[in-house]
Amino acid sequence: MVQTQKQKHGWRFTGTNGDFKLEQPESSSYLYFPLVNEGGMMSSVSPKLHGQVASGHNTFLTPPLSVEDLHNSRASRNFWIHLEGQGVWSAAGNSAKQNAEVYTDEADPVELEAGLLWHRVTRSSLQLGITAEITSFVPCGQDRVELMKVTLKNSGSEPLELTPTAAIPLYARSADDLRDHRHVTSLLHRTYTSAYGVEVQPALSFDERGHRINHTSYGVFGAEGNGAGPVGLFPVQEQFIGEGGSLDWPEAVVLNTEAAEAVDGAALEGYEAIGGIRFAQVILQPGASKSYVLVLAIDEDRIDVPVLMERYGSETGFDSHLKQTQAFWADKVNTVQFETGDSAADQWMKWVTLQPVLRRLYGNSFLPYHDYGRGGRGWRDLWQDCLALLIMEPGEVRSLLLNNYAGVRIDGSNATIIGQQPGEFIADRNNIPRVWMDHGAWPFLTTLLYLNQSGDLEFLLQEQTYFRDAFSSRCKQRNPDWSAADGSDLRTAAGEIYKGTILEHILLQNLVPFFNVGEHNNILLEGADWNDGLDMGAQRGESVAFTSFYASNLLEISRLLDTLQQRKGLKTVELAEEMVLLLDTLGEAIDYESISGKLSRLEAYYSAAANEVSGNKAVLEIGRVAADLAGKAEWMFEHLRSSEWITSTSGDGWFNGYYNNDAERVEGEFAAGVRMTLTGQVFPLLGAAAAPEQVPQIIAAVERNLLDPNIGYRLNTRFGGIQQNLGRAFGFAFGHKENGAMFSHMTVMYANALYKRGYVQEGYKVLDSLYRLSTDFERSRMYPGIPEYINEQGRGMYTYLTGSASWLLLTMVNEVFGVKGLLGDLLLAPKLVKQQFGPDGTASIETLFADRRLRVVYKAAGSVEYGEYQIQSVLLNGSEVTLQRVEEGLLIERRLIAALSAEGIHCLEVELV
């Protein structure tokens, strides 16, 4: 990806580790930045210090907000300056006067700086002669704390007599209470003051969990840079703003009213609270500065304020923890590093690399665009986020995968509510049964990547439990006698907890959908597939796209069984005896053309394994099981190629991706125009469903129908109408979200598929398009990274939390740089194009493999265009490696890598000629 940053008003990188600057950030709406740690503190901050601070759905320190609140709400992390004889000024830019000046020449000059993961805004008032620098971050570690340091500097020529006041609203309760009993829940507040600030511990938690005694406390505390405490406090919001006042023009600041003395022990009940902290009046001489530290904290019980302030409440403590946090995130992100001909693109990838970690920590909630859900991740997220973890944090992945498989039901579906702990799954709390038909496909894809990276074939034979709740037959049946007290583990007829191998779980998830077909012999759409917006075709809708995904999985599983037989000498596999019904060629084979025959066989299986199993295992020949799977896959490929291929009048063609709830084909050339989805093409390309001769036709059709030069590759063409027989997505305006936007996830997967099929220039074009769209600040209006989607105007939407980041990282490492595993060995198969080589003909990547840090440097002695070079030689730490060529590329045995020291970075110099 190559682009010289020419944005007139855009951000620019300032170093080599992803730090960037942006002038006048307030000139762009909807900007926010994540601040988070592994301990559960989840914050966001805007250029004017709007945003929210929370540790969970029921524990918000500041008011919950949506993206529109960033510019409409008056609540923020404010820091006020009362200047004797000159009025008031907000160091955060949040005063009624400053807001009114935003489009005038009197607007404050502002500069934003940010890095991994810290945020700084420097604001000046030329009229008043004062400059404020506000630095924010969440310390790495387990403390649920956010820190702010405000440094005031006299940038004028006259002494300034000023009185500082911090003002941060303390919401201190569940997001559910924002409009449901907002006032009533304030009556639960118990507000305490101390020598450093204000703490709120509500008496009860008043939310969907019931009226429980609350223990969680929330606090805002402050100190001068030398650790000296404030001189007064304003703990009650209505007293701070005054009658007729507001948070952006509060009486306590405007009139410089006296604050209550900051002492320990005072308590107030029943009011909206605020961390109103008054610091001592100070006279700043020209050029002089003074710093203040603010600590925002959430704790499981009353906060130990002296300990907290000893740790964080000084400039020395703040600076020390800032350095530790910067080093922590740099170390995590720099696990994977790219060096190409464009340093800006390389630094942009640092932010993409960070995004999967952010989604692991935030889930899909707690950032302004992500104002849905209640925290945590969904089933699909668990598996796709592991794709990036396999590259960044591989040591944790095996246990995560093992735990995740405990969420599989015996009917091939899975739990929909994911608990907080690894491997914790919960029955649907809303009693709404729903199955996303794609969920069974992702676990094997992720597991196969793990097996290739590690060579750990024994993982397939490890046992794990199954998830059980009231629902069975893919949520078509409900057992009224089941209760949570029965437990969530599948049991045998004898009442014992049943376990099956991971291989058994994988087979189950991919075999059941094969039989679960609609009227055109494709797998039923059910609640939706990957595109959650296709949620209104549950009865007769079919997902052709994911039929091809499941078909490819069945073929890969078949090959994996052959590998187990060859490498491990495994002759048989043990499976739950009920599953033999699904391996029909091992017993009573059925005609795969017969839809009724498939459905009948599926019902027989459901009856045999209706929320419990016998506990008996069938011992099956591994070769016969592999042949059964391969036969099913080949039938599906032939069916898709013959029945779902659309030949266009333009000479190209593509796959139909869906049938709607009236059993009508969705895609094709209609009187009203062309209907085409990108999803319908990606999955046939990713696997083996698309025949080699069909690939160039698909590419031509995508370029013609889906590529928009202004927003990139659209998710679909304009279908017209609301499409109530297909899904809510078509109620969205065209060009937004799942209806025709550039949806990054599918665009990146499209690029990945093109690389896999050998269409490297075409794949590069797709990735480069996404990069250019994301970094064109004049249009995208987003910080570095990849958004969930680009809307009709070119704006980046739903920033930071998107599965597309995992796929982009995976594509860059495995496909572009060609560093990947092959059943444990290291495979080098670079697909770099000339734009990605530096002036000296080199391109490099640092990454982990076999628990060793490797720096792979490709050196081109001749052409740097893909297709015109091949690997000539390899040096490992200066010693020549004997080349072992395979069809996919060059193989280096794992033992050579594993024998290297666990310390330091090891260099692979790869000469290309």
Automatic annotation (TrEMBL):
<keyword id="KW-0808">Transferase</keyword>
<dbReference type="GO" id="GO:0030246">
    <property type="term" value="F:carbohydrate binding"/>
</dbReference>
<dbReference type="InterPro" id="IPR008928">
    <property type="entry name" value="6-hairpin_glycosidase_sf"/>
</dbReference>
<dbReference type="InterPro" id="IPR033432">
    <property type="entry name" value="GH94_catalytic"/>
</dbReference>
<feature type="domain" description="Glycosyl hydrolase 94 supersandwich">
    <location>
        <begin position="121"/>
        <end position="313"/>
    </location>
</feature>
<dbReference type="GO" id="GO:0016757">
    <property type="term" value="F:glycosyltransferase activity"/>
</dbReference>
<dbReference type="InterPro" id="IPR010383">
    <property type="entry name" value="Glyco_hydrolase_94_b-supersand"/>
</dbReference>
<feature type="domain" description="Glycosyl hydrolase 94 catalytic">
    <location>
        <begin position="633"/>
        <end position="818"/>
    </location>
</feature>
<protein>
    <submittedName>
        <fullName>Cellobiose phosphorylase</fullName>
    </submittedName>
</protein>
<dbReference type="InterPro" id="IPR011013">
    <property type="entry name" value="Gal_mutarotase_sf_dom"/>
</dbReference>
<dbReference type="InterPro" id="IPR012341">
    <property type="entry name" value="6hp_glycosidase-like_sf"/>
</dbReference>
<keyword id="KW-0328">Glycosyltransferase</keyword>
<dbReference type="Pfam" id="PF17167">
    <property type="entry name" value="Glyco_hydro_94"/>
</dbReference>
<dbReference type="Pfam" id="PF06165">
    <property type="entry name" value="GH94_b-supersand"/>
</dbReference>
<dbReference type="InterPro" id="IPR037018">
    <property type="entry name" value="GH65_N"/>
</dbReference>
<dbReference type="GO" id="GO:0005975">
    <property type="term" value="P:carbohydrate metabolic process"/>
</dbReference>
<dbReference type="InterPro" id="IPR052047">
    <property type="entry name" value="GH94_Enzymes"/>
</dbReference>
